[in-house]
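Field log, afternoon session.

UNIT: design team B
ACTIVITY: writing a sequence onto a fixed backbone
BACKBONE:
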C-alpha cells in the first residue's frame, strides 16, 4: 500500500472522539465573493493574521485557499473535531474579523461544515493504481 495514507494515519484525530467511535475529522468549506469596494490591504492583513492565529489553535490540522477566475474564493479548513472548529469560530479575535468581513469585505459567502467526511486519496507512486 505504498503511497496511500489514510487521513487518520497522517494526523492524530482521536483526541476528540467518544470511546469506540472511529477516527474522524471536522471540515469547513468557506466559499466567498468579495466586495468591489473593499480595502484589499486591510483584508490581506486580516487574512494573514487569521491564518497565523488559526495554526496556533488546538485541533487545527490544515487550511488552504483557492481562487477561481470568476472571483470566487474557497477556503478549506480541517480540524480534529467539531469542538475545536467551533472554538476557533468563537475565538474573540476571529469573531471581530468575521464581523469586519460581513460589514467591509464580503459581498456574499456560504459555509459548509461536516464531520467524518468520506475521504479517498490517490498517490501516483501507488503500485495498485487505485483509490483508498
Amino acid at each position: 500500500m505504498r503511497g496511500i495514507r489514510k487521513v487518520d494515519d497522517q494526523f492524530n484525530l482521536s483526541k476528540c472522539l467518544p470511546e469506540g467511535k472511529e477516527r474522524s475529522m471536522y471540515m469547513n468549506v468557506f466559499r466567498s465573493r468579495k466586495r468591489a469596494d473593499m480595502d484589499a490591504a486591510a483584508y490581506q492583513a486580516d487574512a494573514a493574521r487569521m491564518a497565523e492565529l488559526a495554526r496556533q489553535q488546538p485541533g487545527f490540522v490544515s487550511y488552504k485557499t483557492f481562487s477561481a477566475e470568476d472571483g470566487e474564493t474557497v477556503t478549506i479548513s480541517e480540524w480534529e473535531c467539531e469542538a475545536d472548529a467551533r472554538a476557533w469560530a468563537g475565538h474573540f479575535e476571529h469573531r471581530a474579523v468575521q464581523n469586519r468581513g460581513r460589514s467591509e469585505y464580503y459581498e456574499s459567502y456560504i459555509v459548509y461544515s461536516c464531520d467524518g467526511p468520506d475521504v479517498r486519496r490517490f498517490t501516483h507512486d501507488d503500485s495498485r493504481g487505485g483509490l483508498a
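LOG NOTE: The mean pLDDT is 84.
NEXT ACTIVITY: expression trials, pending approval
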